[in-house]
Write a structure and sequence with these properties.
By secondary structure, the chain is α+β, with helices and mostly antiparallel strands. About 30% of the residues lie in helices and about 30% in strands. The two termini are about 25 Å apart.
């Protein structure tokens, strides 16, 4: 996908239209020794610090997200999601990230794919933490806390039943369904049947051109590819392009490893609008699975809107298994 998980919910139009970001600023509160803004929420005898990591803190955030990825766990924010967002630059990425920590340990990470859309990841050991769940819900509900803006907003907390339940009790509603899919990578992956190239800096223009030809309103430029490739998560990522028999670039994908033995992510994958209907989507998806296996990933995961039946069919034809649907939650204006 060229845009955030909120596609279809009405919150991605601003991101596509202006090609940039206008993110809410967290209120200034107490600061850590390195000067990062924090807000402390004290619940009982424990304190949960909510803040932005700053550019220097992104490495810790990426590390936490890598650690939290496990086969069989609910799909949640992946280091590759931060990697794809990094096309806007490190400073914009840092400004779009929120962390929830206790005693210096990160318990949850949020990415503002859009000022009105927050995607969450919660540490596996903290997904039944009532204090954290309550803090998260309060922070996303009250605009003055500097997480989500006022008006209609969306939260992807599909990995944490406790947060979803609290949101529902507070009057939030389940949005349109999304379909996660997974492919096991313990066995070798078949040849995709077309020529595949791994894209480096010299071929960035090929990758970005296919992206723009695959998604209406895409703002993916060569400059943004280079910004993405300079990001921390791209050290474990690859961009692939598929070519037809005439040598035309027909499909592209970026794959993100979370480390050996962890699920790897496809984000985004697209087929040139002038070359659809010839199996190139399946071919580039198979190539993506092979690339992740070479990077040591235990499985390949992807998520797409359930209404996009063509995308679901493409992933299934490439050996992915459909998982139970998930939902964002939204609050009306």
């Amino acid at each position: 996908m060229d845009v955030a998980r909120g596609q279809g919910s009405g919150v991605t139009a601003c991101l596509r239209a202006d090609g940039g970001l206008s993110l809410p600023t967290a209120p200034t509160g107490r600061k850590t020794g390195c000067g990062l803004p924090l807000r402390w929420g004290v619940i009982g005898d424990m304190a949960i610090a909510v803040g932005e990591p700053g550019v220097d803190g992104l490495s810790e955030v990426v590390g936490a997200l890598r650690k939290w990825q496990h086969d069989g766990a609910p799909m949640q924010l992946h280091p590759g999601d931060l990697g794809w967002f990094w096309r806007f630059g490190a400073e914009a990425t840092a400004a779009a990230v929120r962390t929830w920590s206790r005693d210096g340990q990160i318990l949850a990470v949020g990415l503002l794919d859009h000022p009105a859309l927050l995607r969450l990841a919660v540490a596996p050991a903290a997904q039944r933490d009532e204090e954290l769940a309550q803090q998260l819900v309060e922070d996303v509900t009250e605009p003055e806390r500097g997480v989500l803006v006022d008006g209609k907003v969306h939260v992807d907390a599909s990995m944490c039943t406790m947060v979803q339940d609290l949101l529902s009790k507070d009057g939030w509603h389940a949005d349109e369904p999304w379909t996660p899919l997974r492919r096991d990578l313990t066995k070798p992956v078949k040849d995709p049947g077309v020529r595949i190239e791994v894209i480096g800096p010299e071929q960035a223009h090929v990758r970005t051109a296919v992206q723009r030809a695959s998604f209406d309103g895409s703002t993916f430029t060569d400059e943004r590819w280079h910004a993405m490739a300079a990001g921390l998560p791209y050290a474990d990522a690859r961009c692939l392009v598929a070519y037809d028999g005439r040598g035309d670039a027909v499909a592209a994908v970026t794959v993100w490893s979370a480390g050996p033995g962890k699920p790897g992510l496809l984000e985004p994958m697209g087929v040139h609008r002038g070359h659809r209907g010839h199996g190139y989507g399946e071919a580039i998806t198979v190539a993506a699975a092979a690339a992740l296996r070479e990077l040591g990933s235990s499985s390949a995961i992807v998520c797409t809107p359930s209404f996009n039946v063509g995308a679901v069919a493409t992933y299934k034809s490439a050996g992915f298994q459909r998982l139970p649907e998930i939902h964002d939650h939204y609050r009306d204006a």
